[in-house]
Amino acid sequence: MNSLTLLLRSARQNRRDLALEDFSERQIHWAIESGLGPMLRRYVADTPTARDSAAWADLQGSDLAARIIAAEHLDAMAEIIRACEGRIQPPTLLKGISVGGQFYPEPHLRPMRDIDFLVEKDDLPTVESALRQLGYRQESTLSREFYETHHHTTPFRHPQTGVWVEVHRGLCPGWSPVATDPCFSLEHVSAERRSSEFRGYAVNRLSEELQVLYLASHWAYDFRMAGGLVAMLDTIYLLESTRSIRWERILGWLKGTAAATPVYLLLTYLDRHGLVELPSGLIGELFRRQRCFGRTSLGLLHTMIDRYVTNGREPGRIMSERNFAILWQSLLLSGPEFRKLPLIFWMLLPSRHWLMRTAPSPALPGPAPDTS
Prior knowledge:
Shape: globular
CATH topology: Beta Polymerase, domain 2
Order of helices and strands: HHHHEHEHEHEEHEEHHHHHHHHH
Strand content: 5-15%
Radius of gyration: 21 Å
Strand order of the largest sheet: 3-4-5-2-1-7-6
């Protein structure tokens, strides 16, 4: 049975002749759960037997829902920009609202659960005032004090459309290992903004080189199984759309940084499955810049991605979601394998499960209790 890497490969090649029967029922439902139902529908659409499948109606439904959601988010973004036009510097679009229209064949193929954009510090009051005038209200289970030092302000939600908006003052939360990397400093981010447009309005987007680092870092250090495929697709489409990536700039930025780890992990996985075309010698240069992986630890993470992300296998008693998170986060820690691996395997032994259920979670890097 094929894995969903076949879907990723079809996305890269823009081939619409995938056979839906080559995927298990679990994999099809996993694609839909991961937000890639519209993507799977697109790339099986030219196969005559696809419409005879019991899953075709589910794929059609997910595609329609995604189109509605995307239209709501795109309309909301245009309305926000229009409300702020002439009063602030052009905002910098981030994540789905940026890459969906920039690199994807159709915007709705990129799952969007909120709108993220970055503004100048002095423009924050103007933007937040405009959002309130448009009917948005700030909602969060976290305190206002938490967001005073967070990388975005308290999220906004529109009560009628249900659209969430996060106004960023930076790219990375303080808990992230990449938060102090020079490549994510406000000065560097400002220098890597590129003029663009959104429905005729002036906006900025991150340079393709910085987007590679941003996508990989957000994927690895805020990892979620259901969203694991999305960052892979973002990267595939970005690299296919931009053949002039200046890798020497990326390699220069990654020296001595935490960002080297997620970039190496993501690109080695995509390269291993033939999902991207990289310059000769790049993987070796990336290996020399990261300080987390040897052959064993990298192979373990690749296997975890294979089984639980691209194959959609359900977590079990041994590899529960909690144990997956412990293993993932532990393998991303800096340090030699001979020190990390024995401790990790001890923590995951079946005979230790009673201890892991009663003991507090280990102090590992991970997101603050923020759902953004």
